Inverse folding.
């Protein structure tokens, strides 16, 4: 029995490897993989280029040395952002504002002032956001914040939310329970926040590059695996496949396994490689900083660190990829059309962002699988859902939702293909 | 090995492709003859479990093949009419993959693939991509895949279609060689394919079995005679309307005709011995020879 099991496993593995070979040997698929590699490299380059360092002469630069200089500057404020640290930032900001470089009309001189500001630029933004209105950003808000009041930064964040929720145009959007849930989330943020240079993580997680890269990866994986089931018909190899001993059983499992393996290997290769390249150049430090230390996430209801953000976003993206790709394979198995199957990832990832702009569809679209590919960009989303008497943010809903749907679609794929009749 | 079809029927909408067929096959070569659209491929697909019958059933040694599932399919070797393959695979990889699909252990598969590649004369092309093979070589790879599991039931659907005469003869001999101790069902609309190798020939028309028997039995089942005669070329269209003509051969002063008729068509007509092609024309009438029934 033990040897039989080993034998069956070896056979399934062998068929799986042949399925992968079928996919990778297609010339168009080879081209698609080259495109994905190019996108990964371009994406990494553009992400890295986003982090700039301005030297004392006002000249800006990018790359490894720029990141190291910026790290040195920013880590002057490394540690917990207590009242004392915040006061120092107010003082430093006032000093920069008072400097001749800042007041000059010459852009190069202004750049020199910006060079002096970049060490505390992140904290400066936190103060702007905390003391400004929740949905109305003011770059100069810090200039009117006194040393005495800056210590209330964290209380101001909560007060800003309460103020926002009581506004006439917002108050009816949320129930009282939901408002309290949001406030609780804000209040449960561990303060004072820990801060250090985290521009590598911020470039990785707070820009559009990661979601874009994930989307392109899913489209390309979809392109690769869409033919796993339907190509048997296109190549007229279906009759032999289905009349063979394992054709309506383990051979289908090996096809599903190949789709799963290609998705898993390609997705994680791209995502991990992208993360590694960006962090290797810009620095791995700061992964333990709360996402709220980044200007994009100050209003986030998710009290997580950048490392956790990366793990959740990439895991969510993986679940989204699995679901989308499995759906494409299901269409491939049902319609026997590779072309039709290829369109599924396009429809799922490219159309919802446009439909979501229509007010009537905005809410429902937050639950579409494309959202899984941009979790890191949705941390400030206040869409809430009630399940079993509890309230959840959209991120907490869509990951398990699509994990369940994937687990449901996967066996359906097997059943649909198993029932194929060759007319 | 016994394969029994009981009231086997397959309908596609209002069209009945196979109509209440009752047949029994044991070891030996069965030639399934019929014009295009007779239902041969549908019948074979049902035998290969690729299609579910609308009604009726197929029994393998008394067991329903749909219930046997993989246990039945492990007995099968199938070469379909439109033999498809994976274009980027080499012959060796293709056969190893099909061996895996057939549940053959990798060690055994390697040995079997090597043997069959040699047997079908593809040793030199073993590492060539399938898409680079000629039509005949592809068919040989096709028969090799069908033989991988040493099947007890071998189903060959139009195996010689599209092959040149040399390849066709070679292929026919190969099938004959491989047909020992198994049940072989060979479908074709090329009469000479089955004339020499089939133990029993079935004539199929409009989804029904018209006649069955050995080549001689079928020839003797004809109630009309075969005549050889000569005529002017200009008379051929008129004669074709009156008689079933199985062959027309141009001669310097007219044409030599092979006519199937109860009566002597011309006073100088000479009675000839009938062959299977005449039988084909006799039973299938004007539909016979629509493609390449006459070679």
């Amino acid at each position: 029995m033990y040897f039989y099991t080993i034998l069956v496993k070896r056979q399934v593995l062998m068929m799986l490897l042949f399925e992968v070979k079928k996919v990778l040997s297609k010339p168009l698929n080879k081209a698609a993989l080259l495109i994905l590699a190019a996108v990964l490299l371009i994406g990494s380059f553009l992400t890295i280029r986003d982090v700039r360092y301005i030297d004392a002469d006002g000249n800006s630069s990018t790359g490894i040395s720029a990141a190291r200089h910026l790290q040195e500057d920013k880590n002057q404020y490394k540690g917990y952002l207590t009242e004392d640290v915040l006061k120092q930032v107010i003082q430093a900001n006032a000093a920069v504002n008072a400097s001749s470089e800042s007041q000059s009309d010459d852009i190069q001189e202004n750049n020199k002032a910006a060079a002096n500001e970049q060490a505390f630029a992140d904290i400066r933004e936190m103060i702007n956001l905390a003391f400004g209105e929740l949905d109305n950003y003011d770059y100069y808000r810090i200039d009117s914040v006194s040393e005495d009041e800056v210590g209330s930064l964290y209380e101001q964040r909560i007060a800003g939310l309460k103020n926002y929720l009581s506004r006439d145009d917002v108050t009816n959007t949320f129930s009282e329970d939901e408002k309290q849930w949001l406030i609780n989330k804000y209040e449960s943020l561990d303060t004072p926040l820990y801060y250090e240079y985290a521009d590598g993580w911020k470039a990785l997680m707070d820009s559009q590059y990661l979601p874009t890269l994930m989307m392109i990866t899913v489209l390309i994986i979809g392109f690769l695996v869409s033919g796993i089931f339907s190509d048997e018909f296109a190549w007229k190899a279906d009759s032999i496949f289905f009349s063979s001993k394992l054709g309506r059983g383990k051979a289908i499992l090996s096809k599903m396994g190949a789709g799963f393996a290609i998705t898993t290997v390609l997705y994680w290769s791209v995502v991990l490689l992208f993360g590694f390249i960006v962090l290797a150049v810009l620095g791995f430090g700061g992964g333990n900083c709360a996402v709220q230390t980044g200007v994009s996430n100050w209003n986030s209801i998710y009290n997580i660190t950048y490392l956790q953000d990366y793990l959740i976003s990439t895991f969510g993206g993986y679940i989204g990829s699995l679901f989308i790709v499995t759906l494409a394979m299901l269409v491939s198995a049902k319609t026997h059309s590779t072309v039709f199957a290829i369109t599924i990832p396009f429809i799922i990832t490219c159309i919802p962002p446009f439909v979501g702009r229509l007010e009537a569809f905005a809410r429902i679209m937050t639950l579409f699988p494309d959202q899984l590919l941009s979790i890191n960009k949705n941390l400030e989303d206040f869409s809430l859902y009630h399940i079993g008497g509890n309230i959840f943010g959209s991120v907490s809903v869509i990951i398990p939702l699509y994990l369940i749907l994937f687990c449901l679609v996967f066996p359906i794929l097997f059943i649909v293909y198993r029932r194929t009749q060759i007319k | 090995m016994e394969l029994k079809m009981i009231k086997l029927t397959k309908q596609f909408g209002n069209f009945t492709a196979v109509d209440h067929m009752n047949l029994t096959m044991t070891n030996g070569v069965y030639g399934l003859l019929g014009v295009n659209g007779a239902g041969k491929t549908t019948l074979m697909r049902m035998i290969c479990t690729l299609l579910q019958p609308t009604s009726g059933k197929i029994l393998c040694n008394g067991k329903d093949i749909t219930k046997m599932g993989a246990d039945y399919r492990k007995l099968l070797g199938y070469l379909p009419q439109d033999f498809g393959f994976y274009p980027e695979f080499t012959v060796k990889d293709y056969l190893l993959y099909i061996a895996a699909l057939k549940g053959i252990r990798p060690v055994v598969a390697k040995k079997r693939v090597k043997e069959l590649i040699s047997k079908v004369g593809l040793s030199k092309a073993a590492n060539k991509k399938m898409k680079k093979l000629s039509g005949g070589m592809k068919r040989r790879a096709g028969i090799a895949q069908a033989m991988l599991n040493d099947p007890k039931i071998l189903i060959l659907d139009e195996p010689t279609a599209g092959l040149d005469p040399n390849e066709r003869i070679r292929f026919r001999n190969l099938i004959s060689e491989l047909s020992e101790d198994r049940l072989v069902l060979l479908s074709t609309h090329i009469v000479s394919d089955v004339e020499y190798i089939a133990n029993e020939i079935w004539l199929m028309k409009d989804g029904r079995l018209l006649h069955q028997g050995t080549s001689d039995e079928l020839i003797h089942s004809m109630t009309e005679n075969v005549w050889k005669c000569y005529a002017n070329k200009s008379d051929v269209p008129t004669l074709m309307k009156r008689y079933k003509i199985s062959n027309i051969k141009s001669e310097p002063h007219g044409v030599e005709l092979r006519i199937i008729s109860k009566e002597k068509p011309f006073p100088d007509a000479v009675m000839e011995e009938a062959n299977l092609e005449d039988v084909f024309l006799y039973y299938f009438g004007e539909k016979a020879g629509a493609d390449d029934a006459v070679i």
